[in-house]
Amino acid sequence: MDNLFAIFISMALINNLVLSKFLGLCPFFGVSKKLSNAISMGLAVIMVMMAASIVSWFLYFHLLIPFGIGYMSTVIFILVIASLVQILELTIRRTNVTLYNSLGIYLPLITTNCAVLGITFINVRTGYNLIETIVSALGAGVGFTLVLAIMSGIRERLELADIPESFKGIPVAFLVAMMLGICFIAFSGMV
Amino acid sequence: MKAIIENLMNGIIKSNPVLVLLLGLCPTLAVSTSIDNAFGMTAAVLFVLISSNIIVSLIRKFTPERVRIPVFIVIIATLVTIVDLSMQAFLPALSKSLGIFIPLIVVNCIILGRAEAFASKNKLPNSIMDALGMGIGFGIAITIISFFRQVIGTGDLTIFDIKILQVPGLIDNPMSIFILPMGAFLVVSILIATLRYTGVINSG
Amino acid sequence: MDSNALIIIISLTLVGLGCGIAIFLANRFLPEEDKQLKKTEEISKYLPGANCGACGQPGCFAYAGEVAKNSDILKKSPCMQLMNDEKKLKELSEYLGLDLSGSSTKKIAVVHCSGDSEILFEYKGINSCKSASLLSAGYKKCPFGCLGFGDCAAVCPVNAISIDQKKKVAVVDPKKCIGCGLCVNECPFQLIEIIPAEMPQYLACNYLSKKNIPNRERCSIGCIHCRLCVKASEKGEVTWDEQKDLPYFDPEKCVSASAAIDKCPKKVIFPINK
Fold first, then answer.
1. So what's the ipTM on this one?
2. Where along chain A do its domains lie?
3. I need a surface site. Which of B186, C12, C22, C190 has the fewest CB within 10 A?
């Protein structure tokens, strides 16, 4: 139990996917202008990460490794993620049209999110068992959503500030990310 | 002919994938800790980019509309697997230091983006030139960033084990924040802002 | 064939089949797709997609949903951009099988301020009209004067509002304005009004003498409430608004008050050039 808690905290805060591992940067700077968009994107990413990690764990340890074709993991994992995102899009489209409209184009973009593919690789390369994989994916998703929410809150305020012309947009967002990263280093004292 | 050269130059400065289009940020920031890594990553991305643009441009008339994206992804994934295995065999040290970012070239927005936006709609020579331009642009950007990070962050410039220079003050007390993830954000931010200020690139 | 290659082909096929079956099952067992959704999507292809809110719905897709339920609402549609786009209107009416050649009420926005007020103090703070208005009723001498930070220009979906940097006043381009009304709520002094597009003139002043502040006079061309415009209008084009103490141009009538424009001593009634 302690081990699972440590994995969760590690994935969410210490080795945060965005700030220390540089995964998922494109949506991080693209989606984070409005808080409500950021939270919807984050929840969708958590669902996809968990489902993708579970399925890819089964496929890796019970199909790829026993047959000695571990190197096919890239192709297989991306196929799995693409199908899962397609299923998620279908589900949201049929059950909740308002949510589907507000997520708009960001739903198909989860397929190309480095964080989702990255977490599947991290899980199989670290050799977690099934429970640890689930906790790790959940932690990574929660950490991603957390940082996305903080970033969008700050960017909403930055809209009103007097920023030099050449820094407007991405450069100042990068500076904010740098300061966030420095703050998150403090979490390494937790475990 | 002129159009082909224009495609090439487009990717290097005007639509530089990292500095203007802001695609492919994940590998740029992560592997730019040293210039060796930068060269290795550029070579891998160039290979995948050119090959995928060639293949996509050749089959663009035969792919049905609905399965376009999955087909592109599978092509790119196969190419990336080839690159990954080759690197593990011939350049194991580089493969180890680049880590999971070699397989992550699959979801690199540059490659999928150019396949979707350009190669699926343009002829073969244009697509090759575009891929070459984008790859060179990416390489230039990542080399500049890793140059700054390596020199200020570790104090010495060593490319492929050839010592080129050692900055006297920094070699003893390097500013290691530049090697950490935060330093990457800082360097890219100042780089983009400087390029915008001097007018080399337009802010989109 | 090499056994390795065989294994790869078989496993890829299996995984591909598995994904395909999963998607097929999801397709089958999820609730039916909202039939309106298809129609709504088709309709929304003809809409401008600016999401301005003129129609009263939160976005073009929502309006397309309303049209899908009852296409008659297009006959008096407040969607200005659609009504002004001949080609799209024709295609949409063909798709729905309706005759939409009738016109609808076109509206535009006007800013009731000429921007001529002098600056009283230098403001250093958040660059937003809403913030600046909280500090001593703005940095201009006239306490109702436009502050020119562009809150209204920022929300305009068609970039019809520009800020005159010398006078620090917002100016609406009547040719581009679609009358959506998003700018009205942005102005902290409520200087923007939506009027029918046929209105030929408007008052470029909103100096409310009943709410005046000592030593904060109107600008050099501000309305002095002399009522000469009312006396000059022979057919009653201009009446007087007692509440605001300013001339009133009836939006139901939209008549040209050229005599009033000439007689105004301050020349603060501006014509609208379309």
1. 0.81
2. 18-189
3. C190
A153 by Cβ neighbours in 10 Å (0-12 / 13-18 / 19+) ranks as middle
Share the mean pLDDT of chain C: 83
Nearest by CB to A59, which of C4, C15, C131? C15
Q: What's at C91, amino acid-wise?
A: E
Q: Are A76 and C22 in contact (CB < 8 Å)?
A: no
Nearest CA in chain B to A77: B77
Q: How many helices (H) and strands (E) does chain B have?
A: 9, 2
Spatial separation of the C-alpha atoms in residues A136 and A30, rounded to whole Å: 25
What's the domain count of chain B?
1
Amino acid (one-letter) located at B52: S
The pTM for the full model equals: 0.73
Chains with 3 or more CB pairs under 8 A to chain B? A
Tokens of A102: 């507000």
Is B200 contained in some domain?
Answer: no
Q: Give the Cα separation of A113 and C143 in Å (integer).
A: 52
Would you tell me which residues 55-74 of chain C have a C-beta closer than 8 angstroms to some C-beta of chain A? 59, 61
pLDDT tier at C20 (50, 70, 90 boundaries)? confident
Contacts of C97 (CB under 8 A, 6+ apart): none
Look at residue C146 in the predicted model and tell me its pLDDT: 93
In words, the CATH class of domain C35-96 is: mainly alpha
Render pLDDT for A13-36 as a digit per residue (tens, 0 to 9).
888 888 888 888 877 777 667 787
Q: Where along chain C do its domains lie?
A: 35-96
Q: What average pLDDT score do residues C204-233 get?
A: 88
User: How confident is residue B79, by pLDDT bands cut at 50, 70 and 90?
Assistant: very high
Of the listed ranges A128-132, B12-16, C51-55, the one predicted with least confidence: C51-55
Pick C27's closest partner by Cβ from A90, A97, A161: A90
Mean pLDDT of the residues in chain A: 84
Residue spans of alpha helices (H) in C30-70 = 35-44, 60-69
Predicted local confidence at residue C105, as pLDDT: 65
CA separation for the pair B103, B107 (Å, rounded): 9
- The per-residue pLDDT of chain B, averaged, comes to 84
Nearest of B39, B17, B53 to residue B94 by alpha carbon: B39
State whether B22 and A170 contact (CB < 8 Å): yes
Locate the chain B residue with the closest alpha carbon to A169.
B203
Closest CA to C168 of C99, C219, C216, C234: C219
Residue A162, token pair as written in the block: 């007097």
